[in-house]
Amino acid sequence: MQKEVNPRRLLWAGFWAIFAAGFGFAVRGGIFANWAAEFGFTGAQLGAIGGAGFTGFCFGIIVAGVLVDKLGYGLLVLAAFVLHTVSAFVTFGATEGQAQETAYQFLFWGMFMFALANGVLEGVANPLVATLFPENRTHYLNILHASWPAGLVAGGMVGWYLGGPAGQAICSWKVQLGLYLVPTLFYGILFFGQHMPRSEASQKGLSFGEMFKEIGILGGLVVCFLLALFFSSTLSPILTPKDATPEQAVAAASQASYIGYGIAGVLLIIVGVITKFSIGAWLLFALFVAHALVGAVELGTDGWIQNITGNILTPAQGKILFVWTSFVMFALRFCAHWIEKTFKLSPPALLLVCAVVAAIGLNLVSGISTFVGAMAALAIYAAGKAFFWPTMLAVAGDRFPRTGAIAMSFMGGIGMMSAGLIGSAGLGYAKDRFASEELQKTHPQVLADYKAEKASKFLFFSEVPGIDGKKLEAAMQAKPEDRTPDQKAVVEASIKGDRKTLVADSFIPATMAVIYLLLVLYFKAIGGYKALTIEGGDGKDEQPGAAKDSAKESNE
Q1: Distance separating alpha carbons of residues 87 and 194, to the nearest angstrom
Q2: CA 139 from centre of chain
Q3: How far is Cα 290 from Cα 347, in angstroms, rounded to an integer?
Q4: Which of 150, 8, 43, 27 is nearest to 497 (CA)?
Q5: How far does CA 223 lie from the centroid of its chain?
Q6: CA-to-CA distance for 450 and 427, rounded, in angstroms?
Q7: Residue 352: exposed, middle, or buried by beta-carbon count in 10 A (0-12, 13-18, 19+)?
Q8: Neighbours of 478 (CB within 10 A)
Q9: Does the pTM of the predicted model rise above 0.85?
Q10: Which CA distances in Å does 545 have to 81, 157, 214?
Q11: Which of 22, 150, 329, 480 has its CA 20 to 30 A from that of 303?
Q12: Helix, strand or coil for residue 133?
């Protein structure tokens, strides 16, 4: 098999695939203001569109993770290539002058298809690299995922050079976004004609039921809860009648929620049947919960960070700072192995340090007032979040080899789904909430004049008035000396709201730090962290997840 496989070429094929995803993500984050100005979207609406760029990923990576060893990598890569291409045309269907709801649907589903393609590709790349480099998964998965911030850098530079406020950009937002098709062509060429290995679990002949056993009801519960949120949020606008009364809108939202949780319940029962109602491994459940928080704080924040820093400083500086943050992440992900060896950190210990640093970094970013200070604060934040995603995948691969590609794919899907439904949407809601609260305290009449027609809502939090995107953008674009008193009040409230949003965001990595500390203590209690392998030629050993070298770690 080794003679047929080219590990380095496959590593770089995966690199360019994830690069394309990061590129598109960065460009999209840079054109949020264009969409707000062109279509009048609120922060919550923009957050929901950005969220579709995550939720679609979840479906793609989960389906790919389950089917990758059955359908083959080549067919899945082809499907992703087609989805990437079609998603561009769907997104470009949003044009100026359309009804806001029509433009919203084009942008939402275009982003969803783009994310679906990204998910399929990562569902291929993660288990592929973990299988190709089993002796050092943390190192090579960090190299693979260095492509994400590299894509962010490239996409951020496109926005920096070609973008700008509506009417002032060198290229339209459609041209900027469409450039992600260039790296799409690269990964297609690199994957073409390559032979792929299979995961250790697949080579041992484990069935779907055996691969799912350690995920079990606990792991399925995390996935199904996020799917319930997705179906609820997606069906709610579809079920709401046009020109609905507030009572009709509430009824439609309740109906969508019932349907969403009903679908999730059926899926959870299916997981139970497949696993013969295995409870699952508590450690994998903890990793799934932690990765939901990773997605919310890393990718959710990435989707808003240049918008937030651009509001606090200037839009041009926000784009530069986004590129800077992504570059720091890119450079650090090549250093994971060196950091582990130099400071003698196990993967869980590395995650603990990162969570603490990320929480500190977000609080520092919330207080920025100068460009240089922002660079320093964002460097700390970037250092904190740099190793979260790939190191979490490495831990899942190390500790649960019996799950094959499934656990890693579920983890990636959970992270992306959380980023869309909790991170991106939640930060959009927080921006609306804190800005409107500030404006209500200082200039209530201005809030009445500037609030959007549609209120902002997030999960179980109460509705709050959002600020109209077109009016806010007009105020932000006006020179400080030319702003009316009302515009000054709106801008000041928006900036204060952004600062409070970042402080609130810092509670997520603080919570992650507690989880990682408990994991560090657990591994210390059982004799240390080690990568496990499947025992026996057919993989059907008596202790699921048993390690050849440590009886203490035979059963998670």
Answers
A1: 26
A2: 21
A3: 14
A4: 43
A5: 15
A6: 20
A7: buried
A8: 14
A9: no
A10: 35, 45, 8
A11: 480
A12: coil
Sign of CA dihedral 269, 274, 275, 276: positive
How many angstroms separate the CA atoms of 290 and 514, rounded? Answer: 10
422: its two tokens: 């909790």
* Partner residues linked to 456 by β-bridges: 464
Q: Identity (one letter) of the amino acid at 522?
A: Y
Q: How far is CA 114 from the centre of its chain?
A: 13
Query: Tens-digit pLDDT profile for the chain (556 aa)?
Result: 445 778 888 888 889 988 988 888 778 777 877 888 788 787 677 877 877 776 777 778 878 877 776 676 777 888 888 898 888 889 888 887 788 888 888 888 988 898 899 888 888 888 888 888 877 888 888 899 899 889 888 887 887 777 665 556 577 788 888 888 888 888 888 887 777 776 666 667 777 778 888 999 999 999 999 889 888 887 887 888 877 777 887 888 889 999 999 999 999 999 899 888 999 999 999 999 999 999 999 888 887 888 889 889 888 888 889 889 989 999 999 888 888 888 889 999 999 999 999 999 999 999 999 999 999 999 999 999 999 999 999 899 889 888 877 888 888 888 888 887 888 888 888 988 998 998 888 888 888 888 887 778 887 788 888 888 778 888 888 888 888 888 889 889 989 999 999 999 999 999 999 999 999 999 999 999 988 877 643 333 333 444 344 333 333 3
Give helix then strand counts, H and E, for the chain. Answer: 26, 2
With tokens 């999960």, the residue in question is: 459
Instruction: Kindly list the structural domains of the chain, giving each domain's residue range(s) and its CATH number in brackets, ordered by start.
Output: 7-215+281-553 (1.20.1250.20)
How far lies 194's CA from each of 65, 145, 188, 328, in Å?
A: 19, 21, 11, 32
Residue type, 413: G
Instruction: Work out the end-to-end distance of the chain between its first and last CA atoms, rounded to an integer number of angstroms.
Output: 31
Q: Amino acid letter at 305?
A: I
Q: What count of Cα atoms within 13 Å lies in the side-chain half-sphere of residue 343? A: 12
Nearest to 391 by CA among 343, 417, 352: 352
Report CA dihedral (156, 159, 162, 165) to the nearest 10 degrees: -160
Number of Cα atoms under 13 Å in the Cβ half of residue 17: 33
